[in-house]
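Worked Example 4.2. Consider the chain below.
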Amino acid sequence: MATFRKRRKADGTVRWLARVRKAGQEATDTFSTKAAAESWARAQETAFEQGVFVAPKGGTGAILADLIDGFLAHRKRIQRPPGKTFANGLARLRRKHGLTHAGNLTYAFWRKHALDRISQR
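Applying the procedure from the previous section yields the following structure tokens:
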């Protein structure tokens, strides 16, 4: 199912946020017109139904390790480093899933990760 949100930027321009959720998968992207957002959403829904994921436009190709490093750099810059337990959890995620592409960090991925962690106890 697709949802659309009208967003106003600080300079007054309007952007449309489109979010598609179907069969445990989610994709989000922004567009300058609602028609473009609706067209993209229909294509995403079709791709989800056929079992083919279409990556959003302008993807950076970031991996989980890049996201963790950026988060830690931000925390260091604002002089609020994470606590020892949280830092160890991030280090464990980086070791185990650091090469996972950001586009693959879906609900199903995190659910599997959580169940794996629970079964290790």
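The mean pLDDT is 85. The helical segments are 34-50, 64-77, 84-97, 107-119. Compare this with Example 4.1 before moving on.
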